[in-house]
Amino acid sequence: MKNLLISASILLVMLAGCAPGTSVQVNTPQATLQLNAPGPNPMINQGDASGRVSRAGAGLWHGIIAPITLVISFFNSDVKMYEVHNAGSEYDFGFLLGVVLVFAVLSLFVRMRR
After folding, report:
1. Cα gap 57→94, rounded to integer Å
2. Please, what's the b/e burial string for 43-70 (b: 16 or more CB within 10 A of its CB; e: otherwise)?
3. In degrees rounded to 5, what are phi and psi of residue 51?
4. What is the pTM of this model?
């Protein structure tokens, strides 16, 4: 019964988190957890200080360097993983493709070493 309750809670949080800008609060006897889904990007299709908007190519590059950028962002608050001045779905696709490419290449190297 406890496993069913935990599974149902996780499913509820996952489904509620699909809507943009939503927030779910999970209360347990030991802790309270606030989960927030990302909302819309107000900077979409708006240029940065130089007037540039990042597209699929920049998204691909940012996805490839994302693991390194994540580590650097822990030590330098000026470094961000994701460019907010982007072209929307085009940039998102490139970013995710870059992240997948990194993990695919790493898994290939691991398989070749076995």
Report:
1. 6
2. eeeeeeeeeebbebebbbebbbebeebe
3. 85, 10
4. 0.68
